Amino acid sequence: MRSYLDFEKPVAELEAKIDELRALNSDGEAIADEITRIEGKAAQALKELYAGLTPWQKTQVARHPQRPHCLDYIAALISDFVPLAGDRKHGEDAAIVGGFGRFRGEAVCLIGHEKGSDTESRLKHNFGMARPEGYRKAARLMGMADHFDIPVIALIDTAGAYPGIGAEERGQAEAIARSTAACLEIGVPNIAAIIGEGGSGGAIAIATANRVLMLEHAIYSVISPEGAASILWRDTAKAQEAASSMKITAQDLVRFGVVDVIVGEPTGGAHRDPGAAIAAAGEAIADALGELRGLDRATIVRLRREKFFAIGRTLV
Q1: What is the rounded end-to-end Cα distance, in angstroms, of the chain?
Q2: What CA–CA distance (Å, rounded) separates 170 from 173?
Q3: 18 closest CA partner among 1, 42, 2
Q4: Rounded to an integer, what distance in angstroms lies between the CA atom of residue 20 and that of residue 26?
Q5: Helices in 152-199 by DSSP H: which ranges?
Q6: 300 and 260 part of one domain
Q7: Is 18 exposed, middle or buried (0-12, 13-18, 19+ CB in 10 A)?
Q8: Which residues have C-beta within 8 Å of that of residue 245, sequence separation ≥ 6?
């Protein structure tokens, strides 16, 4: 059953009418014509709506519960995937999925945040909010990939790193810093794709890559709009205002040089046609890997560092 966002109410009403007409089980030509007419009207309304989304509306789309998640991308794009677990220091963290497989025949290391798709899996994966062991696992896998000369693909979809007491006690900030450093140091190409939310250090820890891709209606920010609103105005109700001021959309971030490529989504967002969204992301990842293929290790490291140094210079 499709879940509608608040701003999608006009489309929801039209599609509900279509379902009512189809439920009549009538072969009448008049009803068939009416269904076709309303379908066209709904499609046009959806197209116009998504052509002018506000940053807050994009935030809602990025968080849509039916949006495809990391495991969906792995199932569709990665063959022979072998997941690896544990950080060899404390334990396993299911918020970050990692392992090795093949992307279009080429061996790759895949690391990504997994939010879960139902209550049970969301609790298992802690809603995609990783603890220190998740980032230490990511750094461990990147080190393995570097040793065996295997490219790294990262899929980012997290509201942020887990802020719990236990996570802080086990060195959350240090783990994020080491994972970020691992991204910068490896001599193999790494590609990051922001497929939903890219939140704070929890995102940058695996998104410091040679190429950063971002889905059209994803968001990427140093803090959530609600968090920014609570700090600036002490009122989370101002999250919509904060989102508009924070420049968190793919369109803004490409302009600033933070993101390299915007990956188009199906009309109505990735949740309307997950297969098409995943296929588009796969094409963009393949193109990005192709651009880096053949470069020596020193050049790959240098270009990555220059990319992030340039962001700082541009924004200052």
Answers
A1: 47
A2: 9
A3: 42
A4: 11
A5: 165-169, 172-185
A6: yes
A7: middle
A8: none
Q: State the Cα angle at 123 between 121 and 124, rounded to 5°.
A: 60
* Gap between the Cα atoms of 261 and 94, Å rounded: 28
- pLDDT digits 0-9 by tens, 142-200: 999 999 999 999 999 999 999 999 999 999 999 999 999 999 999 999 999 999 999 98
Long-range contacts of 163-168 (CB under 8 A, 24+ apart): 163/129, 164/131, 166/131, 167/131, 167/132
Residue 223 lies in a domain: yes
Give the predicted TM-score (pTM) of the model: 0.91
Q: For 229-257, how does the pLDDT look when each residue is reduced to its tens digit (9 = 90+)?
A: 999 899 888 999 999 999 999 999 999 88
Residues 148 and 142: their CA atoms lie apart, in Å, by: 10
- Cβ atoms within 10 Å, residue 313: 8
Whole-angstrom distance, CA of residue 77 vs CA of residue 272: 19
Whether residue 252 is found in the same domain as residue 229 = yes
- Quickly tell me which residue has 């677990």 as its tokens: 85
Phi, psi angles (nearest 5°) of residue 241: -65, -40
Boundaries of domain holding 22? 6-52
Cα distance between residue 202 and residue 157, in whole Å: 9
Give the phi and the psi of residue 80 in degrees, each rounded to 5.
55, 40
Burial of 138: CB neighbours in 10 Å, binned 0-12, 13-18, 19+: buried
Same domain, residue pair 291 and 174: yes
CATH number of the domain that residue 106 is part of:
3.90.226.10
For the record, the structure tokens of 298 come out as: 């020193």
Match 């001599």 to its residue by tokens: 187
Q: Any residues with CB less than 8 A from the CB of 233 and at least 6 apart, and which? A: 241, 242
Structure tokens at 289: 């890997």
